[in-house]
Amino acid sequence: MAFPLNRYRRLRLSESLRAMVRETTLDPADFIAPMFVVPGEGVRQPIPSMPGIDRVSPDLAAEDASELAARGVLSVILFGIPDHKDAVGSPSADLTGPVCRAVETIKAASPATVVMTDVCLCEYTDHGHCGVIVDQSVDNDATLPILAAEALAHARAGADVVAPSDMMDGRVRAIRDVLDASGYRNVPILSYAAKYASGFYGPFREAAESTPAFGDRRAYQMDPANVREAVKEILSDVEEGADMVMVKPALSYLDVVRAAKEVTNVPLATYNVSGEYAMVKAAAERGWIDGKRVTLEILTSMKRAGADLILTYHAKEAAEWLQGR
Question: Is 248 in the active site?
Fold first, then answer.
């Protein structure tokens, strides 16, 4: 019997051969580890829906960042949970608040760590929405100066990168203008350029205490059915001054990651969000899947789709697995 000319299995016969021809590789330096920071000292609060993830005070955030850096994860992104909230999210710009304090403590403990900060109002408003409410709706233009003030406070605290996630139109330009005018021209912006109104955010909202008190966020976050709109958002944010862009969520939006990669040449991130993390953890705990294998397969799919950086709650364990194999 005549055999096919091509025997593709030849290059799959051993791990060494497979590694030699592997097209996509993961490295701990690809990961950005999200952190939830709260006021106080010595505070560590486990998040039930996200096993292995805690809310921490700034001092413990510094310890965790140092431990991540020792495993090769050199980037973190901070989300703050303040001790009080108001209608316009004014605690977001508090230089004594948990995010600014955590920036300072992490940079002191682990200077090599790139400290990013999420810039949004949902954790700081008493209604849980990402902007100022006027007539039961988020007022885009009234929200912009508050977001810019938040970003400026983070830059003053020493943040290496600010990352607006609110999805207000024009917020990248507003933040860039304020940073530049205040002497922070060298602080990059990582824009959540294509952030979808997704059902995968549930555990995060528990962790950040940011569930909307009424309605939802579909009037400002993107419709999950749209890809071309994401391309418009990404190109607009780059034009406004974004140095990096992000697609969020990741796993169900790999086609959007690929589309983003094809239209821009700035670094591209994607967010392996809380619901994606929680599903893997829940299935692994029940023995339905091999948690390690599935996690690394999922992260590889994001890199293969075109992501340069991956925000992931798996950062610490994935780094350990990669270093151990």
Answer: yes
